[in-house]
Amino acid sequence: MLDRIDTLAQQREAFRADVLDGLSRPQKTLPSRWLYDDRGSQLFEEITALPEYYPTRTETGILNDRSADIAAIFGPQAVLVEYGAGAGIKTEIVLAALDDPRLYVPIDISGDFLKASAERIRARFPGLPVAPVVADFTDEFDLPADLPRDGRRGGFFPGSTLGNLGRKEALTFLARMRRHVGGDGVAVLGVDLKKDIDTLLTAYDDSAGVTAAFNRNILVRMERELGAEVALDDFAHEARWNAEASAVEMHLVAQAAGTISVAGRSFAFAAGETIHTESSRKYDVDSLTDMAGEAGWSLDHVWTDAEGLFALVSLSAA
User: Which domain holds residue 203?
Assistant: First the structure.
């Protein structure tokens, strides 16, 4: 059963509203959540396998090395709630290590992609109940009311997706996850750590052009779902470093003056003007500890790779 928190019509209306709002701003922007339709989710999975994109393989290595420690954090008969589940490849490492888990609850905005992932998890773990929830984890939503009450609830948020949220959004998300798991709940998060800029920028602008296709796919989605009129070839992908925000930013750069028309409105672009589509903030342990504390969590454990590129951290409800 697929529990649809938002109908497709509601999602499309939210997409339209975000596009009209974002393209009206002096710095045009589109929320990164809209990068992840089914095609965008597929492209992102391709990105995770690229040689330049270190986060996925580094995090996977930590998960493999520390799976027993992570399973001990969640405890026996856990209800595992994963936010932005995607393909769930890394989740399999955790599920395989857990002691008699009660339920797996993957949450993702892309319904068809989530359904396929849930079916694969069911086949991989035939005794494990799986209850997918279609929702945007950056918006307010409740978990299904019929989830088991016994067994510790654990939030799982791998992949450094926390870095895609601004500080206010990240605090809101962490507080929501804290509410979802309850007073005795725990969580394990993946976070990308601060490092040299060349390594960061290369990871977001690969030589095969997959990240560029992923970024430009949001324009394709606007055409398909909103009937937008946009010259796709007039926009190029660019990754840039924002030192003040400690973030890699993705932009779509207009190669020539032109317009995008959508929902009866037209938005003019000068040559070189950009649409900011995603920020990926990089953390250190101190800043993450402070933010977790503000949201009602205590940061208990930090696991990193040998080069200090990436970290998995465990949180407990404070």
Answer: 8-47+197-281
